[in-house]
Design goal:
Blueprint lengths: L1 H25 L3 E2 L4 E2 L4 E3 L4 E4 L4 E2 L4 E3 L5 H4 L8 E4 L4 E2 L4 E2 L3 E3 L4 E2 L4 E2 L7 E4 L4 E5 L16
Parallel strand pairs: 1-4, 2-5, 3-6, 4-7, 5-8, 6-9, 7-10, 8-11, 9-12, 11-13
Antiparallel strand pairs: 13-14
Length: about 150
C-alpha cells in the first residue's frame, strides 16, 4: 500500500510540474528540454527575461527574479527590469535566490541558501551570501543524470 501511494504522489507531482512548465513557458520564460523545476520554486516572469538551459535542476524554495522593484530608489533612471540566464546542466540548491542581471554558466553548481548577485562562470561551484566561487571544475564536465533513480 505504501508503494502504491508513493507512486501516485510521484505521478501527481509530475503532472503538476508539466502544467507548471507550460505556464512558465506561456508567460515568456525560455526553458530547455529535460529541465526539472521543483513545485516549490518561484520563477518570476512578470518583468524581464528568464532563460533556463537544458538538463537543469532547480530545487525547492529557489527564487529566480528578473526584476528589482526598489531599483528606482537608488537610480531614478533604472526601470528595475532585467534578465536571468542559466546555462545547460546547472544545479541550483535549495532556498537559493538568483537576482536580476545574472548569468550562470553551463555545468555550474550553486550551493543551498546562496544569493546569486553576480555572474557565475562555466563549471564553477559557488555558494554563500553573497555568492563566492569555491571551486572550478575541470572539463570534461559530467552531466546531471537524465533520469533520476526510482527510490520506491
Amino acid at each position: 500500500m505504501k508503494t502504491i501511494i508513493r507512486k501516485m504522489v510521484h505521478y501527481l507531482g509530475n503532472t503538476l510540474r508539466f502544467f507548471q512548465m507550460k505556464f512558465l513557458r506561456a508567460s515568456g520564460a525560455k526553458i530547455g528540454k529535460n529541465t526539472m523545476i521543483s513545485l516549490g520554486a518561484k520563477i518570476d516572469v512578470r518583468r524581464g527575461k528568464i532563460t533556463i538551459g537544458d538538463h537543469c535542476l532547480i530545487t525547492h524554495g529557489c527564487y529566480i527574479l528578473s526584476h528589482d522593484g526598489a531599483a528606482h530608489v537608488l537610480n531614478p533612471e533604472d526601470s528595475g527590469t532585467g534578465y536571468v540566464t542559466i546555462g545547460d546542466h546547472v544545479f541550483i540548491g535549495v532556498n537559493t535566490v538568483v537576482m536580476r542581471n545574472v548569468t550562470i554558466g553551463n555545468h555550474a553548481i550553486i550551493g543551498a541558501g546562496s544569493v546569486v548577485n553576480k555572474d557565475i562562470p562555466e563549471g564553477a561551484v559557488a555558494a554563500g551570501n553573497p555568492i563566492k566561487i569555491l571551486k572550478q571544475l575541470e572539463p570534461p564536465f559530467r552531466a546531471l543524470p537524465k533520469v533520476h533513480q526510482d527510490v520506491s
